[in-house]
Amino acid sequence: LRILGIETSCDETAAAVVERDAEGHSKVLSDVVLSQLDEHSAYGGVVPEIAARAHVEALDELIEEALARANVSLADVDAIAATSGPGLIGGLLVGLMTGKAIARAAGKPLYAVNHLEGHALTARLTDGLSFPYLMLLVSGGHTQLILVRGVGQYERWGTTIDDALGEAFDKTAKLLGLPYPGGPAVERMARDGNPDRFNFPRPLVGEARLDFSFSGLKTAVRQAAQEIAPLSDQDVADICASFQKAISRTLKDRIGRGLQRFKAEFPVTGEEPALVVAGGVAANLELRGTLQALCDKNGFRFIAPPLNLCTDNAVMIAWAGLERMATGAAPDTLDVQPRSRWPLDSNAETLIGFGK
Ligand code: ATP
Ligand code: MG
Ligand code: FE
């Protein structure tokens, strides 16, 4: 099977070709990503209209490049997979409509892929992981702990009740005067800071539910910054270090509970269970270290796919389409619509009340 993937849900325009042969060996034939970072950085965040226009401008050429680098033509692919949600509606429209047009013109089946499913299944491509496993997605738009039971079978165990973790990094950076995106800037500053200078809140720690909350942390940072303003570089470094420590402690508690629950539901028989991390925040070395230590302590394998496959890309979309096709699932019809909100777990919206 050979699939062309298209991703346009946020601020990366991406196209890729992925293949799996009859023996089950998979291979990334091409992986093209155009980040719009420069176009949004002046605004300190992603501007939806700018993003949609940039996707329109870049996508056709990117798809041609992905096919060329893979050394295949449209006739050589078995299906088209395009992200159809969740995300910014303008971008989703561009990608999905392009996918539909190509599928129609080339006479290929179309798979409308949930972006979160792409993140969730990536570890099967990179590490050959078998079901079930736990997945922590921490990006600018999402913070979710997901049980991956099988292709198309996902249970959301926890989600943020306010800000996403990447968003908390970005907002904290902004109020400290650090550049966008905030995550890398905060991490860099934190290296020279004292993590014990400020005792920032660790929301929901100790609670049985597996959700997350980060907006209180951001507010506490603002208050601390206002109290000691004007801020020296050392003050900023200390705030960043203390902020990261609070997040580390929060994750340790929340994810620790998730691992316990997983072990209770799936008693270990042979292979060690696994926790997979995805999303841009997974680049953070301190948080990675925290998760690695937590996994070691609980007898879990900790799997972090290479960073380019943790952040938004089209390889994961092609792969999710491939996995679905391989199960024999029917493709989508050409009247499939993009969905800005589309929880992976269809119960999630009704259970908790928000769909991100
Ligand atoms: P999605 O739609 O999947 O949420 P996104 O574009 O918001 O996509 P990503 O591109 O996966 O998310 O990740 C971007 C986020 O990751 C930003 O919020 C950024 O601040 C954060 N980030 C990147 N590097 C680091 C880091 N070293 N430490 C913490 N956060 C980081
Ligand atoms: Mg992004
Ligand atoms: Fe993403």
Automatic annotation (TrEMBL):
InterPro entries the UniProt entry points to: ATPase_NBD, Gcp-like_dom, KAE1/TsaD, TsaD
Transmembrane segments: none
MF-aspect GO terms: iron ion binding; tRNA N(6)-L-threonylcarbamoyladenine synthase activity
EC number: 2.3.1.234
Catalysed reactions, as listed in the record: L-threonylcarbamoyladenylate + adenosine(37) in tRNA = N(6)-L-threonylcarbamoyladenosine(37) in tRNA + AMP + H(+)
Similarity remark: Belongs to the KAE1 / TsaD family.
Cofactor binding comment, as recorded: Binds 1 Fe(2+) ion per subunit.
Family matches, as HAMAP family: TsaD
Cofactor(s) for this UniProt protein: Fe(2+)
Domain called Gcp-like: residue spans: 27-319
Entry binding sites for substrate: 137-141, 170, 183, 187, 284
Source organism superkingdom: Bacteria
Keyword set includes Iron: yes
Name of the protein this chain belongs to: tRNA N6-adenosine threonylcarbamoyltransferase
Keyword terms: Acyltransferase, Cytoplasm, Iron, Metal-binding, Transferase, tRNA processing
